[in-house]
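To illustrate the input format used throughout this study, we show a single complete record. The first block contains the structure-token representation of the backbone; no residue identities are included at this stage. The design step must infer an amino acid for every position from geometry alone.
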């Protein structure tokens, strides 16, 4: 395989023809052995066979199937039953081939030609062709889902599918985050779209075929022996839905599942440090814990109160105690490796109770408690209690409103939170412009805080329209975004969080993507007894 191009370098040289080639049929993840997984002797082939059992907290949800982060099981099916056109590296924004083998960006940044693999078939046997790219992106836009990259997909104004193995996408304007969309939007089958929406058929091109779904219980996928990247090692994967974190931990400890996605951080630490389970950390797929603010709430419309919240929150306690040190404190959403990261700006709001109390005094007394919504799934109930206590210390009364995950997601997407809310967001691990044009809490067009402003709109547009995401112009746009977030505080960042999986020592070569989805095409179970 030839060395893939670095995305930032390619986008800065728009006038040049950019060609990326891939040879052979090995998966893009085959060379990415996870250092924490079961190891093999040099030259020893991975064992074949076995049914991997993975415990997850959230059931399959066809209505939100293409919405990143709204259901753990949705993401696992997307990553293993479907393919995308390209795949980002786990370590940086290097673009790697998947269903697309070569691509060429026009000098003006307003079109992208992609050469497609000629040897790909859907699980029902139908060949994959360029028209499927058009159908998939249009289906991505049509609902019932409201995917985060909808604005980016909507900026694609034309599809040239004359050649069945080449597609040319035309854009309304240069799209700095086009590869974010192509990494995230799965290539689905337009012929079975109604069945996908109903949750009865999932016809993809990926390394595993959908087998069965027992709602609120499990989903089973089986090996696609005709996969273009070569057949997977595993015979099958069973995703067990275990909605309670303590039950998930128990099932892992007793050997009823081989891997657990969604343990609380205390149990994750116990399982891996005391009981011999292996820890897999999704580097490159970080999330951010934050407090969202509905700026149309009469009390929270005063920025002084939002500043008081930013000064009052004990971020270090939340990172250290709740997430067991698996993360770091930030004031801005960017992870440390991002081209938008600014270490100095992340020191703007340190915990300062005196400043917080003075700002509350300037605002005036708060007579009614402010609602704070949080999800009952995960650790946000503990974070919510800490935030409630922190705000009480500075004279801001808060009443806790627990929601199940579906309710919390629905309120987030619709901007229906009355006051404050707790959640984790993603998308800062992609091209920086993506955050302000795609993520529900940040989208300058419509966000969960019901916030808008000309400076924010201008900064998000400038970041989006700048082809090279590492250029001085792009960095200037990121600083403008930072200024808005730190000044207007329509959400208050707490910290960057690392997602983790605990797995049995017998599980080898677990891979993942930037969306925190497991890719199990090269995963194996040790001691399966056959190597065919």
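Output of the design step:
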């Amino acid at each position: 395989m030839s060395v893939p191009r670095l995305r930032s370098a390619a986008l800065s040289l728009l006038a040049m023809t950019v060609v990326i080639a891939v040879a052979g049929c090995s998966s893009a993840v085959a060379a990415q052995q996870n250092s924490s997984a079961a190891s093999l002797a040099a030259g020893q082939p991975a064992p074949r066979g076995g049914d991997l059992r993975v415990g997850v907290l959230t059931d399959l949800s066809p209505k939100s199937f293409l919405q990143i982060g709204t259901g753990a099981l949705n993401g696992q099916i997307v990553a293993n039953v479907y393919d995308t056109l390209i795949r980002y590296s786990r370590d940086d924004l290097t673009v790697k081939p998947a269903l697309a083998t070569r691509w060429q960006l026009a000098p003006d940044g307003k079109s992208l030609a992609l050469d497609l693999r000629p040897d790909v078939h859907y699980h029902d046997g139908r060949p994959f062709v360029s028209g499927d790219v058009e159908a998939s992106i249009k289906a991505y836009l049509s609902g019932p889902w409201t995917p985060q990259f909808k604005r980016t997909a909507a900026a694609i104004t034309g599809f040239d599918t004359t050649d069945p193995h080449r597609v040319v996408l035309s854009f309304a304007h240069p799209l700095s985050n086009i590869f974010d969309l192509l990494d995230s939007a799965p290539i689905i089958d337009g012929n079975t779209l109604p069945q996908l929406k109903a949750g009865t058929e999932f016809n993809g091109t990926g390394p595993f075929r959908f087998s069965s779904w027992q709602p609120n219980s499990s989903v089973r996928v089986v090996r696609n022996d005709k996969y273009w990247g070569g057949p997977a090692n595993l015979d099958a994967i069973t995703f067990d839905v275990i909605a309670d974190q303590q039950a998930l931990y128990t099932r892992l400890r007793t050997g009823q599942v081989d891997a657990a996605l969604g343990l609380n951080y205390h149990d994750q630490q116990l399982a891996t440090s005391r009981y011999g389970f292996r820890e897999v950390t999704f580097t490159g797929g970080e999330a951010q814990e934050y407090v969202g603010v509905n700026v149309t709430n009469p009390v929270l419309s005063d920025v002084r109160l939002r500043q008081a919240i930013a000064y009052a929150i004990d971020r270090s306690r939340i990172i250290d105690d709740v997430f067991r040190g698996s993360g770091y404190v930030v004031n801005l959403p960017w992870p440390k490796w991002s081209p938008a990261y600014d270490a100095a700006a992340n020191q703007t709001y340190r915990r300062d109770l005196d400043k917080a109390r003075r700002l509350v005094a300037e605002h005036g007394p708060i007579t009614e408690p402010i609602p704070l919504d949080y999800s009952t799934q995960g650790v946000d109930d503990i974070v919510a209690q800490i935030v409630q206590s922190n705000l009480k210390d500075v004279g801001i009364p808060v009443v806790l409103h627990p929601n199940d995950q579906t309710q919390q997601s629905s309120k987030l997407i619709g901007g229906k939170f009355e006051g404050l809310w707790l959640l984790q967001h993603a998308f800062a691990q992609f091209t920086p412009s993506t955050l302000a044009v795609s993520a529900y809490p940040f989208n300058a067009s419509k966000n969960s805080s019901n916030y808008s402003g000309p400076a924010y709109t201008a900064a998000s547009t400038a970041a989006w329209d700048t082809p090279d995401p590492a250029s001085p112009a792009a960095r200037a746009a990121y600083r403008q975004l930072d200024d808005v977030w730190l000044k207007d505080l329509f959400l208050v960042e707490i910290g960057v969080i690392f997602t983790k999986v605990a797995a049995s020592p017998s599980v080898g070569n677990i891979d993942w993507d930037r969306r925190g989805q497991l890719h199990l095409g090269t995963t194996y179970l040790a001691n399966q007894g056959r190597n065919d």
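Structural context for interpreting the output: The CA atoms of residues 281 and 500 lie 4 Å apart. Confidence is low (pLDDT under 50) at residues 1-37.
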